[in-house]
Amino acid sequence: MLLLPLFLRLIYMLLRGLGAGLIGFAVIGLIFSYAPIIKQEISYDLGFGGGRNIEDQLQKLNFVNVAEAEKTVRVQEEAKALGVDSYFSIVIPKIDAASNIIANVDAGNPDEYLAALKKGVAHAKGTYFPGQGKTTYLFSHSTDTAYNVSQYNAVFYLLRKLETGDKVLVFFADKKYLYEVESKSVVEADNTEFLQNISEGERLILQTCDPPGTTWKRLIVVAKPVK
């Protein structure tokens, strides 16, 4: 090589440097290309793989889903044992009252609510459902004949026996809600005060005719959720 002319030596050195540079670029390119794969392989072998994290998350979700499913089944079985369904129903242990609830019944339409009260307790249309943080209004009354009042009041006939602290259980959408009686009062038949401010906090209102078997007044029981 020492015998080569200077310009040939320069060309040789240039080509050698260029070759080394190309090889270097190729190696760097390979590193960048395969780095993610290598990283995943190493992470997987060391137990830090994203796949395992995903598996862990799926297992946790599956555990939660199974737990929720088991909880739902327990609620359904409990409701069934009490003689009601878990879709929408009420149970008042102290007075041995249990009934399914018909949702969204127009309290101002006699034909509608009389038909509903033959099947169970009525949920007043325009009020909310358990768990929504607002007022749920249930009634079991009639403004028809005395015979029908007695018939339709059967579920809440002993509602007047409830006192502060007594428990009321409501099933809704396969969930169980426990309430505690807070107050009881008798109001005029046309009193709608308890239907006001229904968006201000969760509470359960139970209404029936008073005295039992008449349409003279209304018995109102207010209960708050047990935390």
UniProtKB/TrEMBL annotation:
The keyword Repressor does not apply. GO terms for molecular function: hydrolase activity. The keyword Transmembrane helix applies. It comes from Candidatus Woesebacteria bacterium GW2011_GWA1_39_8. This is Sortase family protein. Signal peptide: none annotated. Keywords: Hydrolase, Membrane, Transmembrane, Transmembrane helix. The chain crosses the membrane at residues 6-32.
